[in-house]
Design goal:
By secondary structure, the chain is mainly alpha-helical. The chain is 45% helix and 2% strand. The chain is built from six helices and two strands. The chain has a two-stranded antiparallel ribbon. It starts with a helix and ends in a 25-residue tail after the last helix.
Length: 245
């Protein structure tokens, strides 16, 4: 039921998009990165480990699209997973400390569930309608990212989320802020500052992925992460339940 509701929400919203005259929403310069570019970036991210690709994914040819498309997919995947992991890491800490939104979760005035400071249980306590809204919103963002502007496997810049305001697709209502940099604080930043920020984002994303998995492991198996012993409350549920059918 949750999957059907999320799909219906996505299809209904996407059908409201109307094509308009093409406007650039991503970098106008096509990005064609090679394995050498990854090696150079890896040296900036970690001068000690440098380039680490034991499975030789950078040398693969995903779906027969070529090296540049494959690397674009890998770069987008790492940046996206890093960003989600940073959200999850901060959210887990907030949830574990009982931090919730101050307003009611529904029209009946119920508060957001604290579930004893157990993030997994907080998700379980949400209604099916609330979960459908969250998953539906994520799906809409994915549709927008994949379908608007130059795709990251076709020369688009990995990690560059399309603008809502300067879009090649006419939205049914105005959106005053973009998902990335909504207040335009980085518009005047130099290329060097942006490049340094990208390295920091990748490194923080990698650490967040390790961190959130550490939280999940300790919450399921007490003492599995010695540094977190006694700091993370046990979760009796199943984190993989949404994917179990």
């Amino acid at each position: 039921m949750m999957r059907a509701a999320a799909l219906a929400l996505c299809l209904g919203a996407s059908s409201a998009f109307q094509a308009a005259k093409p406007v650039s929403t991503r970098s106008a310069v096509k990005v064609q990165e090679s394995k050498a570019d990854l090696q150079a970036l890896a040296g900036k991210c970690n001068p000690i480990v440098k380039f680490f690709d034991p499975l030789d994914l950078a040398g693969a040819d995903f779906w027969g699209k070529g090296e540049a498309a494959t690397i674009g997919f890998l770069r987008e995947s790492e940046i996206k997973h890093g960003r989600i992991a940073m959200f999850a890491f901060c959210g887990f800490i907030a949830g574990s400390n009982g931090v919730t939104f101050p307003w009611p979760i529904d029209m009946e005035g119920h508060p957001f569930p604290s579930a004893g400071g157990v993030p997994g249980a907080q998700w379980d306590a949400l209604s099916m309608e609330a979960k459908a809204q969250i998953i539906g919103f994520i799906a809409l963002m994915e549709i927008w990212n994949e379908g608007v502007g130059t795709h990251y496997m076709k020369g688009g810049k990995p990690g560059d989320f399309p603008s809502f305001k300067d879009s090649a697709v006419e939205l049914p209502h105005p959106v005053p802020f973009d998902l990335f940099d909504p207040f335009g604080l980085s518009k005047s930043a130099s290329a060097e500052k942006k490049a340094a920020g990208l390295v920091k984002e990748i490194n923080n994303g990698r650490l967040a992925q390790i961190g959130i998995f550490g939280f999940l492991a300790e919450s399921k198996l007490d003492g599995s992460v010695p540094a977190l012993t006694g700091l993370i409350k046990h979760y009796d549920g199943d984190y993989m339940a949404p994917f179990s059918g």
